[in-house]
């Protein structure tokens, strides 16, 4: 497994952990809001890392592979939908005046959506990246 994939998987765990802790803490407390803000910052940094290092080699390989090209397109559309919901969640609950009673269920929904995405990335996309990475290293 490449160092990049190890890092990305570790970040997945950290992001999930922050959201689980935020859910337990609640958004009415300063600690809960800090956890939400930390999760947002970490997720944005993670997405930036994927955009800079993961996707360029995948797109390059997809130029010669229609199946991979289609898959990347599907992943991008999926991420666009998830991003809208996740960013709306973060924007709503990072505010100091927000004490919504629906925080726990909203947080559960975001955690579920991210976990589903993470599972797809780690079982499919990251494996493809490592195959491409191995081909580059071994050629």
Keywords:
139 residues; single chain; 0% strand; 4 helices; mainly alpha; elongated
Mean pLDDT: 91
Helix and strand composition category: mainly alpha
Low-pLDDT residue spans: none
Distance between the termini: 17 Å
Give an overview of the whole structure.
The structure is a single chain. The protein has 139 residues and is an all-alpha fold. The chain is built from four helices and no strands. It has helices at 3-25, 30-62, 66-93, 103-138. Helix 1 runs antiparallel to helix 2. It starts with a helix and ends with a helix.
Topology of helices and strands:
Blueprint: H1 3-25, H2 30-62, H3 66-93, H4 103-138
Helix pairs in contact: 1-2, 1-4, 2-3, 2-4, 3-4
Give a quick summary of the entry:
With 139 residues, this protein is mostly helical. The chain has helices at 3-25, 30-62, 66-93, 103-138. Helix 1 (3-25) runs antiparallel to helix 4 (103-138) and helix 3 runs antiparallel to helix 4.
